[in-house]
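for the writeup, i need someone to sanity check this before i put it in the appendix. the sequnce is what the collaborator sent (i think, or maybe the updated version? ugh). structure was predicted straight from it, no edits. if anything looks off just tell me and ill rerun, i have time this weekend
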Amino acid sequence: MSLAYGWNKSTQNHGPGGQSYSAAIQNASTRRDGWVPIRPSNQVGRTDEVSKAAFPIQNPSSTQASSVSKRANVSPPTPYQNKRHQPSTIQQSTLAPIAATPSAMPPAYYGRTVWDQHPASENWVHGYVIKEEFEEGAIILAPYLEPLYNTKIQPGEADRAETQIGAACAKHRPFILLSKCADHFEAIPLYTYQGLGVESKSLKVQGEHVSIARAGYPCKKQGPHQPLYLEPVTQWKVKETCVAHFTEVTSFSYSCPVKSLGYINRESYIHLAELHLKNVHESIGNKVASIKGELRARQSLIACSQVSRRMGAVRGASTYGLAEVAA
């Protein structure tokens, strides 16, 4: 059977699309030879009307009433579908709201406070305990947040946070408590520099770092200074590339939650404080002395210039006066 014969055979009692000629005449206003236009999917309100037109609903008889509940989920029969033509009646259904995927759900910590994330049950403390019970030289673990400068760390990776001002590095970092003030304390951060230490850095940068080590254990010396040693009772497992950047000081409010990791010994605290004072406070003192010298020199020049101007004014007035008299 040829395709032309098959087409004529299947459409001799129906119009294009499987419609009867009476339906085609009624739909002739569409100027598409009787094809029924597909309604936009947002006309959900006409679903019942279309469904009723396609499948007239009849009340079940008494013999059918008992089986109605068993057929509650059975889809209604579809009209005859020609192999070459789809039925002209389009069924529409209302889509159920799409369930939120796990990737679209907010993270578990969303909306939680810093204290919620650092509970006392996990040995986190803040406030009075830090101010009264922690001593200088304590090694603490504290939240650490700064702009993320490493562009190789992509969104979704560990220690990266997204903020309105750009990507940030958000993690926990160990610090050594340096000093306590009225409403905050200052601490020196510890780094490993991705486990590489400071060997690849310039000598000047290395000179601002000091190693952390455990007495009696192998130590990889970082920088020119003698290491800081942990107290024997400290259980914190220090890495051999761990260093204290003693020229960098971070300030914390006493409200910030911290966790105790142990202590460096008293001699090491003195060593750390002296390194900090020498490289930070003494450099500040030297700069202050230099500025004071510049100010004194400037004031001396100003005083000399003022004296010169006064002397010149007197000499000019006397000469000018004599010139006028001579004239």
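Helices lie at 3-11, 21-26, 47-54, 62-65, 128-133, 203-206, 266-326. The mean pLDDT is 75.
thx in advance!!
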